[in-house]
Amino acid sequence: MRPAEFAPETIIEAGQQLQAAGRNITGFALRQRVGGGNPTRLKQVWDEYLASQSMTRVEPVAELPVEVADELVALSKALTERLASLAVELNDKAVKAAERRVAEVIRTAGEQREQAERELADASQTVENLEAALDTSRGEVDALTTKFNNSQAYSQAQAVELAQLRERLAAAEQGAKAAAAQHAAELSRANEAAEHLRVELDTLRKTAAMELDQVRLELAGVKARAESDLRHAHEETRSHQLASEQVSGLLSQVREELSQARHQAAEAREEVARLQGQVDAIEGLRAELVRTLANASRPTSEPSENER
Questions:
Q1: Residue 2 covered by a domain
Q2: Is the predicted pLDDT of residue 11 greater than 70, yes or no?
Q3: Separation CA 54–CA 47 (nearest Å)
Q4: d(CA 86, CA 51)
């Protein structure tokens, strides 16, 4: 055996110092205090010291009197019997309580086992459902992958077509700008022509209105003269039967003048309608030019239906 590095007195002194400082006395604390050594041996030396200090000297005592000894024996016997009875009673209660606890534990364990079996069945069903869902998801992933590959090829083709459409669109925009300038010039000329025709139409309307008023005045005068002549003829007819031929001739003249006035009024209305048709045609042409110019000057962001 390797000789001790530190004497028991040194170890005991170190333990007393730790005890005085109020610290727990352990093998490592003793080792730290003495500066080395095996903690187990250091603690063993200290424990032996404490055991030697707790030992008391056995001194001779006087024996009990006979009466006291007999009474002590009787009391000890009664106490032993009572303790035995209490031990049996406590053991019975403990056994019954243990049996109840065991029964409760068994019942609880059975319920837990049934619950675990149900949960295991649910878990098995869930696993089957998840496996089926996983198979379905894998099929969907495969289908989506195929669609994605197809869409990539389609996107590349669309990119090429889009580049071609952009080139055509640039050319169309240049042509549209030239057409817009031409349409603007044509629209300006059409506006000037429409304005000129509007002035002519206003003049013709005023002239036709004046002529129509004149015709109406002449017709009213003719009607008044005819009515006067007719009344005079009737008066003369009652007295002169020979004047009937003159009245008939006068009525024929009046009818002819009335027919001419109506014919002139109809011609004036036809002229007005003709000029109005020309104005409407010019207005339609101008509206068409405005729409064409607006469509040509509008920025084109998407290809037309034919280009698609």
A1: no
A2: yes
A3: 11
A4: 37
